Amino acid sequence: MSVLNSTAARDIAHQLHPYTNAIRHEAIGPVVIERGEGVYVYDDQGRRYLEGLAGLWSVAVGFGEKRLVEAAKRQLEKLPYYHIFSHKSHMPSIALAEKLAEMTPGDLSHVFFTNSGSEANDTVVKLLWYYNNACGRPKKKKFLAREQAYHGITVASGSLTGLPNNHRDFDLPAIPVRHLTCPHYYRFGQEGETEAQFVDRLIGELEAVIAEEGAETIAAFIGEPLMSAGGVIPPPNQYWERVQAVCRCNDILIVADEVITGFGRLGTMFGSEHYNIQPDVLVLSKQINSSYQPLAAVVISDAIYKAVADNTGKIGTFGHGYTGSGHPVATAVALENIAIIEERHLVENAARMGRVLQSRLAALADHPLVGEVRGAGLIAGVELVADKSTKAKFDEPGRVGAYVFHRAHDHGLVVRAITDTIAFCPPLIITEDQIEELVSAFERTLEDTVRWIASGKPA
Ligand code: PMP
């Protein structure tokens, strides 16, 4: 078979891949994944991989879950598509909105559905602009976010994201946003500073930025309870409590972006419960339906809903919505997925297996390449460094991470390399034996990496 007819050549010829170096892709081509079962996926050569990242932090109930397939099939046969614009509705979106309002914390009461986490965060921006206009506060439009935050890639959500790679050459940020210091003590704590003093400094910075900008110009503080795609960074003790206290004092809303932490990832149903956050707006996606269908949800407080609703009463229809908002198949699959999470006690499993994963990885802390092991529940990051004692990064950031990513593949394990932090976020159904398989494949990968670095060879 000629190379040009191969699947790889066809892929290279016609796809611009998300989050991929296109030139390197032309050289190495894709790994073509064909099917999945439980915590495993299989490529078109029949090779099996333990999916250590649950796809993109998202497949809670595992791959090949027949109940989700059946739920999608039933809905496709009955009503494959309908919208919820202009006073129309359908049962799957009604039942899911009701379920989310019931299970989410505090007085969150109404849901706006989108197709993706990015669209959900774009919706948050527009909705809070609209809300503040409705409340007669047209200046209250700015957002506070953090460096290394990940909130998506559309124009507004990409602006909230605090990663240079998502801004450079895309002309972002394009909305008014201030990025505060990333709450990562290992990296951003100063010489001689305790973790508590680090938090004092971050809170001082937050207060200074509010004073500088004027609280009357700031709509909301947005944050992931535990920062994920920016490097798996759990917040220091008391960080969230203190951020919230400052925001409440200044009439700044709290938006919890739980696109990854929602539905059990941290061993609680929502990350907000884990960190004692009382959000005014909660953003959900991914594990909402194990990403079997594109879906995200913006869950808002009763107060926000009422102000928005009253405004539509005055000025007319709420001018925002997607063709796919509340898609019947995506929402039907979400209902079944949440039922599985509840019936099979997957949140409890995540808490139990999370303890196993965290303690197994913590045991690698003495390894010469390991700078820090961190995480909570079933999400973890292992930051690799050139020098443990000084925390020095590698000369060419990301090169070692990329080697680990590819070498782990050779050992039958899918991980994510975030520069040189290796991320783990397996499906919530993972068992203790599978965690052992995951960690031992990673240990073998680390040993190969030590030898590769010593050899001085290119990747
Ligand atoms: N917010 C968070 C916290 C995320 O992790 C992600 C995606 N990883 C998004 C938003 C964006 O979601 P999507 O890729 O569906 O647009």
UniProtKB/TrEMBL annotation:
InterPro entries: Aminotrans_3, Aminotrans_3_PPA_site, PyrdxlP-dep_Trfase, PyrdxlP-dep_Trfase_major, PyrdxlP-dep_Trfase_small. GO terms for molecular function: adenosylmethionine-8-amino-7-oxononanoate transaminase activity; pyridoxal phosphate binding. Keywords: Aminotransferase, Pyridoxal phosphate, Transferase. GO terms for biological process: biotin biosynthetic process; gamma-aminobutyric acid metabolic process. Signal peptide: none annotated. Its cofactor is pyridoxal 5'-phosphate. It comes from the Bacteria. Belongs to the class-III pyridoxal-phosphate-dependent aminotransferase family. This is Aspartate aminotransferase family protein. The lineage of its organism: Bacteria, Pseudomonadati, Pseudomonadota, Alphaproteobacteria, Hyphomicrobiales.
